[in-house]
Specification:
With 608 residues, this protein is an alpha/beta fold. The chain folds into four domains: 147 residues, no CATH class; 111 residues, no CATH class; 123 residues, no CATH class; 205 residues, Rossmann fold (3-Layer(aba) Sandwich), CATH 3.40.50. It contains 27 helices and 21 strands. Helix 22 links the parallel strand 18 and strand 19.
């Protein structure tokens, strides 16, 4: 049996590691790395953090542990790129910016204790990591680079060479390049930056010192033909004017230069990781006359370059004329033609969707969840932005906050006084009914799920629904439900489809006409499988009490209930998830009418 190491965030703000049953595909290198991580964790927490930040990124770890390797790895990256680290040594302080914190919090994977993950916790771990590096480098007698290589052998610390690329006002050569170097830190802790040509004068005939200064450039030149040519020709020591092709060739090699310790100062627009071209889709901007999953929503599609709208024609012209850097709308941008073509195709697909199909609320929710799949983009592509218009935004806010749902009134024929939280529950059921959404009523036992459901059914009765609803319950609850109905909704016309409820011990078969005259039919999980007329009728609602009875989707009982025909569904349970996530999955499968689609999507989610 292979075991996998997982990270857990504890309620007291601590990080804990624990072993769980793992995949048979765990490699030998992964096993060794996990054991070393765990050993260091048990020995000393701060030392464990420092080891984790330099550990091999190519060896797979569990998502939770890989998240913390990525977080600490950001410390290692910034440390390697700290100028004059050799001189600063144990006085170094690596900053953790608010943008870094927001980004790390936004991409946290599902892990135990995720609710305790916050900015303060990240800041605490970062400060501990910084303190441990200061302590260990202070004790180390060799160079800072040698110390880091005891953790990560292939590390190259940043040197004293800087490459600068800036925009130029000249139209024929719109970019300027300059290589500089930093002088050693003075007594005030500051260093100056000088053009690289000054190094020829400063070091004169001391070729060893010049070679040491240029060591990072020589390493980069082994991979970069561009830098090799500049170095051999001597152009590297002088200011250069470049056209957009020269600048693009340089920018594409930034990762090479930084890998070998050259710091690069470049325009901010190149640093953004994603494409500047985005497809914006806005859904449900106006009030809709029809509500429910089949309500038709208004639907707007537009194409943006960063924050500026552009036309499809402008984007296609760029695609035909440019592969590299382009100047458009007063800004330089990087044009990746393959990426731009993908985005344009997605834009056209969205326009076709808008032109050829009425977009329902059901489609809108699918589009928000699966926009890339529906518009033909890879899963990890971020070119699609789907936003809610005013009307749909109000709907989503009400789904998230029950206090925003308008109250409904229960007339005087309903003989119970609802408590405030029960009123909210009834309001919520009615709101979901207006959207044709299924509902899971999961209040704890004793809080009145039955009375909330009866109030909801009473409201449906007064709407004069054509079809009856079906309530499926354990046989032991028949007497209780019958008693509650007679007490609180005596005007409800209901029928119990169970032999014990009839003196002749027989259940008369009901045809469609007879069922349409009823408000509610009550039966049991066992008898759903027996009475054929329960299966052929289309119910207004199928309602399950003690719905955990179908938590195992493979049982005949669960399959029979899921195959019932209904316009909508409700489940009632105080324990929607008893032992494992699959318990809840089975209940959700029942609630969603389009179950084949859900199975496909959930199956897809489980593999990603």
């Amino acid at each position: 049996m292979n075991f996998e190491l997982h990270a857990v965030v504890m309620p007291n703000g601590a990080l804990q590691l624990e072993w769980n049953e793992g995949d048979e595909r765990i490699t030998k290198s992964q096993q060794l790395l996990q054991k070393e991580i765990y050993s260091r964790f048990k020995a000393d927490f701060k030392s464990f953090l420092l080891f984790l930040c330099f550990s091999d990124q190519s060896i797979p770890l569990s998502p939770s542990l890989d998240y913390w390797r990525s977080f600490t790895g950001e410390f290692a990256r910034k440390l390697r790129q700290t100028p004059d680290l050799e001189d600063i040594r144990d006085k170094v302080t690596i900053p953790l910016e608010n943008a870094d914190i927001d980004e790390m919090l936004s991409r946290a994977p599902l892990m135990t204790g995720q609710e305790y993950l916050n900015a303060e916790f990240l800041k605490l771990l970062w400060s501990m990591l910084n303190a441990q590096f200061q302590y260990e480098i202070g004790m180390y007698k060799g160079t800072a680079e040698d110390f880091i290589r005891t953790y990560s052998p292939d590390v190259h610390l940043v040197g004293r060479i800087y490459f600068h690329l800036v925009e130029n006002k000249r139209q024929d050569y719109p970019f300027a390049f300059l290589a500089t170097y930093s002088t050693h830190i003075d007594k005030q802790g500051k260093s100056r930056h000088l053009p690289l040509k000054h190094a020829l004068t400063e070091y004169g005939k001391d070729s060893d010192k010049l070679l040491e200064l240029l060591s990072t450039v020589h390493l980069a030149a082994k991979e970069s033909e561009h830098i090799s040519r500049l170095l051999d020709s001597g152009e590297l020591f002088h200011p250069l004017a470049w056209n957009e092709k020269d600048a693009y060739r340089f920018l594409k090699e930034i990762t090479i230069y930084e890998k070998y310790g050259i710091l690069c100062r470049i325009p901010n627009w190149w640093k953004q990781a994603s494409s500047p071209f985005k497809v914006h889709i806005q859904l449900g901007g106006r009030g809709e006359s029809l509500v429910g999953m089949d309500a038709v929503l208004d639907f707007h599609v537009s194409l943006f370059l960063n924050d500026t709208p552009i036309t499809g024609e402008e984007a296609r012209r760029l695609l035909e004329e440019t592969d590299g850097l382009a100047y458009i709308k007063g800004k330089w941008i990087a044009v990746d033609t393959a990426k731009l073509k993908q985005t344009l195709d997605a834009y056209e697909n969205a326009r076709k969707l808008m032109k050829n199909k009425d977009l329902s609320l059901r489609d809108a929710l699918r589009l928000q969840l699966y926009s890339n799949n529906m518009l033909g983009l890879p899963e990890n592509d971020d070119s699609i932005k789907v936003s809610n218009g005013a009307w749909l935004e109000q709907v989503m806010e009400k789904l998230a906050n029950q206090d925003l749902i308008p109250p409904v009134s229960v007339d005087t024929d309903f003989k119970a006084q609802l408590r405030p939280y029960q009123e909210k529950g009834v309001n919520w059921l009615c709101f979901l009914d207006s959207l044709h959404f299924g509902a899971c009523l999961a209040d704890d036992m004793g809080l009145g799920k039955t009375i909330q459901l009866l109030a909801f059914l009473h409201i449906l009765k007064n709407k004069k629904q054509k079809n009856a609803s079906l309530l499926v319950i354990p046989a032991s609850l028949i007497s209780n439900w019958s008693s509650e109905i007679n007490r609180f909704t005596p005007d409800m016309n209901y029928f119990i489809a169970h032999p014990e409820a009839h003196t002749d011990k027989k259940v008369a078969e009901k045809d469609e006409g007879a069922l349409n005259k009823l408000d509610l039919v009550i039966t049991t999980y066992t008898l759903v499988q027996k009475y054929e007329w329960l299966k052929t009728y289309t119910w207004n609602y199928v309602i399950l009490d003690e719905a955990q009875a179908i938590k195992n989707p493979g049982t005949q009982q669960a399959r029979s209930v899921k195959n019932l025909n209904s316009q909508n569904r409700i489940i009632m349970t105080g324990t929607p998830m008893e032992n494992r996530l699959s318990d809840l999955w089975s209940l959700l499968i029942f609630l969603i009418r389009d179950r084949l689609e859900l199975r496909k999507n959930l199956g897809h989610l489980r593999t990603t």
